[in-house]
Design goal:
Strand order of the largest sheet: 1-2
Bound molecules: arginine
Radius of gyration: 31 Å
Pathway: Amino-acid biosynthesis; L-arginine biosynthesis; L-arginine from L-ornithine and carbamoyl phosphate: step 3/3
Largest sheet: 2 strands, antiparallel
InterPro entries: Arg_succ_lyase_C, Argininosuccinate_lyase, Fumarase/histidase_N, Fumarate_lyase_CS, Fumarate_lyase_fam, Fumarate_lyase_N, L-Aspartase-like
CATH class of the largest domain: Mainly Alpha
Distance between the termini: 52 Å
Catalytic activity: 2-(N(omega)-L-arginino)succinate = fumarate + L-arginine
EC number: 4.3.2.1
Family: Belongs to the lyase 1 family. Argininosuccinate lyase subfamily.
Number of domains: 3
CATH architecture of the largest domain: Up-down Bundle
Number of helices: 18
CATH superfamily of the largest domain: Fumarase/aspartase (Central domain)
Mean pLDDT: 96
Low-confidence stretches: none
Helix content: 55-70%
Number of strands: 6
């Protein structure tokens, strides 16, 4: 006999095509532990409302605990004609508690408030586990920044040499967005902290069940204020999907730099053998597959977000079956990030930085031209003229194929009367870096403070 959750008014069962379209157990099964926890809490409020007596509650709870264990061990799984995780678990309950007792659990609840609550519970767990993984990566990057000491890197804008910066400063610029992503997850955790149980299909329950008691039982501090909102909204799922997409984008920006830094032309980094791959035809190849897969999978994680937003657009209140489509995108994001984060963390932890090469390149490409201009400003020259004079220095160097530091005292005097030989003091990458010493700047002392402040942020998050 087919144990569907509905059927009384139907003359026939669903067609094979409908059943195939409708079934969701192949993806919503991961919510089974939450659903059993929800059922146990629901049984307790049925008991509190006088709808189950003491023996019935005990029998129901014992059956649900056995069901939970059978789900965990794999002894109980969804059958081909179970429509969704809720249907399958009700069948499992009835198999364990009998039709009479098992059939009492569904009073006063709907799959609509069940699923809205389950997805919140699942997302709260994921928010915490993803936050831990993102923090672990932030910690590794921060450690690498600390180890980098005062090594200097050519800082870039438009991918062109711009101004020298500390390698540590650049690395830390990848840490702060990740910490903000974790803060976003924490904020979201607070908004997810409301159970939708008790909302029923959309209007609430007439059976005197206490939504706040279920909420407390399931670890929520409150239940939703509006049963229609509780069952019909998925903005919290979309918010989760956005933060996941942002994490993937932040990882992908770092990945892109590692790919570029790993080229022969840059030669800034070498990947550890255990975090790179070979070519099937070119024996010499050592490929950056981890950052490439990170960059590629970021596209897919963004797609999960945009697909979900498109599903939600223009959906009328309250529950519509379209909402079943909220789960696969976020499950895919979670699975993808669970693969990416350990790989990229291990890769960053084992990366070799060629700081001699970075240091050699840092003053090239006239990246100290701003230092000349700012030196002139300190001599009282208006910035507009200082910019022109420093620009003339670059033009002379370009014509003669030399760098700014190669300009002689005569060259300088020939360009402008304001350019005295002392300007050479700022024409080193280290001097340039040390001079940018306001809060948030790249001077070594400021970067040490920044690292300390990131460390304490990581501790509290
Ligand atoms: N499986 C559905 C979902 O994931 C919940 C079932 C609600 N179905 C219904 N016919 N009201 O959203």
């Amino acid at each position: 006999e087919r144990l569907a959750l509905w059927g009384g008014r139907f003359g026939s069962g669903p067609s094979a095509a409908l059943a195939a379209l409708s079934v969701s157990t192949h993806f919503d099964w991961r919510l089974a532990p939450y659903d059993v926890a929800g059922s146990r809490a629901h049984a307790r409020v049925l008991h509190a409302a006088g709808l189950l007596d003491d023996d019935e509650l005990a029998g129901m709870d014992e059956a649900l605990v056995r069901l939970r264990e059978d789900v965990a061990s794999g002894a109980f799984t969804a059958a081909a004609d179970d429509e969704d995780v809720h249907t399958a678990l009700e069948r499992g309950l009835i198999e364990r508690a009998g039709t009479e007792l098992g059939g009492k659990l569904r009073a006063g609840r709907s799959r609509n408030d069940q699923i809205a609550t389950m997805i919140r519970m699942y997302l709260r767990d994921q928010v915490r586990s993803l936050s831990q993984q993102v923090l672990a990566l932030a910690q590794v990057i921060t450690d690498r920044a600390e180890q980098a000491g005062e090594a200097i890197l050519p800082g870039r804008t438009h991918l062109q040499h711009a101004q020298p910066v500390l390698l540590a400063h650049h690395l830390m610029a990848h840490v702060w967005p990740l910490l903000r992503d974790v803060e976003r997850f924490c904020d979201l955790d607070g908004r997810l902290d409301a159970s939708a149980y008790g909302s029923g299909a959309l209007a609430g329950s007439s059976l005197g069940l206490d939504p706040q008691a279920v909420a407390a039982d399931l670890g929520f501090s409150d239940s939703v204020e509006n049963s229609i909102d509780g069952t019909a909204s998925r903005d919290l799922v979309a918010e989760f999907a956005f933060v996941c997409a942002m994490v993937a984008i932040d990882l992908s920006r770092m990945a892109e730099e590692i790919i570029v830094w790993n080229t022969k032309e840059f030669s800034y980094v070498t990947l550890d053998d255990s975090f790179s791959t070979g070519s099937s035809i070119m024996p010499q190849k050592k490929n950056p597959d981890i950052p490439e897969l990170t960059r590629g999978k970021a596209g897919r994680v963004i797609g999960d977000l945009t697909g979900l937003l498109a599903t939600l657009k223009a959906l009328p209140l309250a529950y519509n079956r379209d909402l079943q489509e909220d789960k696969e995108p976020v499950f895919d994001q979670v699975d993808t990030l669970d693969l990416l984060l350990p790989a990229i963390t291990g890769m960053v932890a084992t990366l070799t930085f060629h700081t001699d090469r970075m240091e050699l390149m840092a003053p090239q490409g006239f990246s100290l031209a701003t230092d000349i201009a700012e030196w002139l400003v300190r001599q009282g020259v208006p910035f507009r003229s200082a910019h022109e004079i420093a620009g003339s220095c670059v033009r002379v160097c370009e014509q003669r194929g030399i760098e700014l530091a190669d300009l002689s005292a005569e060259d300088l005097a020939g360009i402008s009367e304001h350019l005295r030989p002392e300007v050479h003091e700022v024409l080193t990458a280290a001097g340039s870096v040390a001079s940018r010493d306001g809060k948030g700047g790249t001077a070594p002392a400021r970067v040490r403070e920044q690292i300390a402040s990131a460390q304490s942020r990581i501790q509290v998050l």
